[in-house]
Write a structure and sequence with these properties.
The chain is an alpha/beta fold and 357 residues long. The protein folds into two domains: 5-161 and 337-352, 3-Layer(aba) Sandwich (Rossmann fold), CATH 3.40.50; 176-335, Rossmann fold. Helix content is 41%, strand content 17%. The protein is built from 14 helices and 13 strands. It has helices at residues 13-24, 60-71, 83-92, 106-109, 116-127, 137-146, 189-197, 217-226, 241-250, 265-273, 283-286, 304-317, 319-335, 338-352, and strands at 5-10, 29-34, 45-50, 75-79, 99-102, 131-134, 155-157, 176-179, 207-211, 233-237, 253-256, 276-280, 296-298. The protein is elongated, with a radius of gyration of 21 Å.
Length: 357
């Protein structure tokens, strides 16, 4: 049997997806997560261990090292250059097991600015890795700027892409906008509601679906009432994969305007579904969307209603279905299908195996 990958991270859907992808590709996996991770049994899933990977748990590297000794993994693959990556780097040091560190976004874009300690922690995680991966070039560049002494570390742009979209016969795009990011301040769902409320009367036939949930959900519902748009806004909550795929397919326009971001899976799914994307003008988004060509970018949220109106008009003319949809669907097929991305990770693991200092 091939030596396992020791996969370390939070109890996140992204970590679970990567584990499932590796297993489906025939790669044995040992899981160590901060919090319990829901994942189905698999013959190649050799162990699942829950470890407190918070900053204060100084015993975390010792527990990870015990897993390294027990399972002799080909690589240790950690998700995020935060306390998870820091503990993983300390655990891997001197074991001969290479560390792959996957960057998520906030770990290298915002966490280092919280304090000198957090900056040191992120730099320590970066310096301890034998390779960095990210789904956006801007994240790899930010990591190199944070840890210039480790700038020669191999860097790989690998999206954690999407599964083949399900066949949904009879489901077609309607006059609907879709927001499906979490209801947290970072994602600025309130700005989407305000912009939707400012659309002119000729857009009164359009609906806004606000999927997902979070600490701001109740506040956002009240805002929709206050703005007088509650009848045209549908809060659909956390959706399972099939229901979310249906929402993408029904939406003409996908809206996502967070303050900072890497490559979000929701963006990739929306492009594959044929939605016209309206996105924050962020470096990671510019890697996928060229403003006015295969989507629209907005830098000033005070103008979000103008950009939404432009998206609506573009969709109404039929030009999006003719030009934008086919381009984006091919883009995803070429660069962001999950199965192909998993093969990229496995190839990286094979190149690094046995090369730790």
């Amino acid at each position: 049997m091939t030596a396992p990958v020791l996969l370390v991270g939070s109890a996140s859907i992204h970590v679970a997806r990567m584990a499932r992808g590796l297993l489906a590709a025939g790669q044995p996996v040992v899981l160590a997560t901060h919090g319990g991770l829901k994942i189905d049994p698999h013959p190649l899933l050799l162990a699942c261990e829950q470890i407190d990977l918070s900053i204060k748990r100084l015993d975390a590297p010792y527990r990870l090292r015990r897993l390294i000794k027990r399972w002799a993994p080909r690589v240790l693959h950690a998700h995020q250059a935060n306390s998870v990556g820091w503990h993983a780097a300390r655990a891997a040091r001197g074991t001969g097991v290479p560390l792959v560190l996957t960057l998520w976004g906030s770990d290298v874009l915002t966490l280092p600015s919280r304090s000198a300690f957090h900056r040191w922690l992120v730099r320590s995680a970066l310096r301890g890795a034998q390779a960095w991966t990210a789904d956006a070039q801007v994240l790899l560049a930010a990591a190199a700027a944070l840890a210039p002494e480790a700038a020669a570390t191999p860097r790989e742009w690998i999206p954690l892409g999407i599964d083949e979209p399900p066949a949904l016969p009879g489901v077609q795009a309607e006059r609907r906008l879709l927001s499906c990011r979490l209801h947290k301040p970072l994602y600025r769902i309130d700005a989407i509601l305000q912009a939707f409320a400012r659309l002119p009367q000729r857009c009164a036939g359009w609906q806004l679906e606000v999927a997902a949930a979070g600490p701001q959900t109740d506040e956002l519902r009240r805002m929709a009432d206050t703005l007088g748009i509650a009848a045209r806004v549908e809060f659909t909550g956390m959706l399972d994969a099939q229901s979310l795929a249906r929402s993408y397919r029904r939406a003409a326009v996908f809206v996502s305007v967070p303050e900072s971001d890497g490559t979000s899976v929701s963006l990739l799914e929306s492009l594959a579904a044929g939605c016209l994307p309206v996105l924050s003008d962020l470096p990671a988004n510019r890697e996928w969307v060229t403003d006015g060509h295969n989507g629209l970018l907005v830098a000033d949220l005070a103008r979000l209603d103008d950009v939404l109106l432009r998206a609506i008009d573009t969709w109404d003319t039929g030009s999006w279905a003719r030009d934008g949809q086919p381009f984006n669907r091919q883009l995803i097929r070429d660069k962001a299908m999950f199965e192909g991305n998993i093969r990229q990770f496995i190839a990286l693991h094979a190149r690094l195996e046995g090369r730790a200092p």
